[in-house]
UniProtKB/TrEMBL annotation:
Domain Ig-like: 120-197, 198-311
Name under which the protein is recorded: Ig-like domain-containing protein
Organism: Oncorhynchus mykiss (Rainbow trout)
Any Pfam family matching the protein: V-set
Top-rank taxon, per record: Eukaryota
Amino acid sequence: LYVIPLCDCVSVVLGQKGWSVTYTPQSICILKGSTVELSCSYKCPSGHKVTTTLWSTEWGTGIEPNNLGQDPKYEGRVDYHGDKKKDCNLKIRDLRESDSATYRFRLLTDQEGGKYSGNPGVTLSVTGLQVKVTGGHQDKTLTCITTCTLADNPTYIWYKNGQHLDESTSPQYKDPVSSNYEDSYSCAVKGHEDLLSPAVCVQGQSCSRVNYTKRRICVLKGSTVDISCTYVGYDYITSTFWFRSDKSTPEDLTTDPGYAGRVEYTGTFEGPFILRITDLREEDSAEYRFTFKTYSIEWGHSFPGTTLTVTGNTTLTEHYDILVILHLQNIMIYW
């Protein structure tokens, strides 16, 4: 339960008068995996002491609204930012498509009949990115699609085999599409490159591609982390390695003196390929990317990978998935 102080509201006649909840905006379309803040403010009648505030997605006659703060589906992902100035903002992190719903704010007071729910609420639509392929073998068209309309005319970024190709305000890829069976394409929205679409084969189903298990990870200094991906090569694969994106030239981490004795690779082709880093240091905080070579291509180094944050704080940052591995008496413990 969220408990906030006495409302300092204008004196008005009780009942529905004097109650209000304002949402700005009332409709939001946002990318899966991102963070949203539902902006909200409220007023209540004079003399009412607010005892409980909550956000809910379940409404109806005879139905008691659920409290998102106690819903297991939102555990660890919800923060209520209400304050004494009648703000009732709600932040939801690591958005999932199943979070798409209408969210309403509700408050209860110490007076008889002191219950109020703010209608109509905020309609939240959570969408992923997908590459839609249309046309024939020689004249295919690629479109970066969503299930709702993103705000602010986003700029779309296109990748071919992990290599940055183009940026445009149009969701449609403007250049001719490759006719090679090994080539894959993916798209992203500028500013949210880590939330890009899955790579799509445009000629058949056996193209080269890489998919990361997690896009953001936060871990404690001194612990061990596993960063993983799956990959497929259309042609015979000749080499594979992980590297830091902040290096001017991609460098295999197993040859980097800063990681000496702390890095190992495990996994197989088409299975999770894992980068394990032990004895983590804060300077290990970086974006880690995977690349591979075949006889015909090298997976592009501009393809976004997994961002690792290493912290010495006991409270891990709220913006990242958490994966910590501690070794205590030969026991691995996962959070």
